[in-house]
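A quick aside before the break. I want you to see a complete sequence-to-structure record at least once, exactly as it would be stored in a machine-readable document. Don't worry about memorizing anything.
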Amino acid sequence: MNCSAAKLSFITTGKTYRTYICSTLLYASAYWMLTADDLQKLQRNNRAMIRWNCIVRFNETVSSLSQLKELEIVDLETQITSCRLPWY
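That is the input. The structure line, written in tokens, reads:
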């Protein structure tokens, strides 16, 4: 599994992903309540962007969990739960 065209390390790619992409995906998530359908769409989009960022082809069988571990990224649902306001 390669990470980006510049051949960055997994940890550097994970930090870059968390900084730019996750922060954009989770913008203002503390203020809006997600439905199950919304969460599923966000997770699908998140996984697709991780696979694209790591240049994983469609015919390759690489699990999303292994990619998250290698990039040191926390699951999207965990991130949303941690930044959510207490009354949600």
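Two observations worth writing down. The radius of gyration is 14 Å. Residues 10-83 form one domain. We'll return to this after the break.
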